Amino acid sequence: MGWKMMPQEPAYVAVDVSKATLEIGEPAVDRTWSVRNEPKGWRKLIGWIERLGRPVVVGLEPSGGYEHGLIEALLEAGIDVRWCDPARVRALAKALGAPAKTDRIDVGMIRRFLSQTGGRPVRRDPERNELRASLSARRAAQEAAQALEAQAQALPQGDARQALAALAAQARLTMKAQERAAIALVRASQALAPTWRRLQTAPGVGPLVAAELIAHMPELGAVTSKAVAKLAGLAPFIRKSGQWQGRAVCSGGRSRPRQLLYLAVIACLRGSSRTKATYQHLVANGKPPKVAITACMRRLLVTLNAMIRDQADWTLA
């Protein structure tokens, strides 16, 4: 009888990403080293990974866009890359009593989180990435316009106030241009357009909200109702110990989908819809308005997830 080769365990490599550098944690040892966050540094990291001679999983946290070039290089080299949720990594560090927050400690926590949970696979999706970039630029321009408008209002009439108002108007134009670019992109996409149109059959979900949900919730239709609610931070967590039971609370998750679902629910409450009827029923049964709105957000998201999963438009049934 011949020996059967067992599959080799992957090496977990954690990377802490900053604007200038990458702090890299070696697998199974408490040792780190760093390279520049630029193509030369990416190639050095990839070469080191290839020399390990075993399957490798690279884990990293979203870092405000500084990770995009590295991720593209790793995926191009055929390396498995996983997202590690920053809030959950911080919770792990707190639970383990991490004495401080340094790059080396962060790398250790990312690696430990990755080895315990597996992380979330990073997929190449150029169209969705471009859509996300346009929507991010739109949101930045909107926030800049709002800040400039507030500053202008605080000034007395005069040249300074007019200058800020002009800058705010330009930011508004940029916001509109990025919104048009995002909508044009998703409308022209064979992969994204059917989902975009289907989402808009739901009350409260317009073209922009549908585009944002596609950009920030790529899992729609591919995960369970509980999982999608958890991803958006809308899954209630029970707090119970012995005879004591606290209120269930929602926490964590992705803030942008939550903001969009809130806007969709508020739009529904202004008209006549099933969402409004659900909200009124919950409030009538003693639920605080904020809790009722959160429940409606969760129900809407679960329904949208089922619509995409089943390739079905919104129905009143």
Automatic annotation (TrEMBL):
Signal peptide: none annotated. InterPro entries: Transp_IS110-like_N, Transpos_IS110, Transposase_20. Residues 197-280 form the Transposase IS116/IS110/IS902 C-terminal domain. Transmembrane segments: none annotated. Residues 34-152 form the Transposase IS110-like N-terminal domain. Coiled coil: none annotated. This is IS110 family transposase. It comes from Caulobacter segnis.
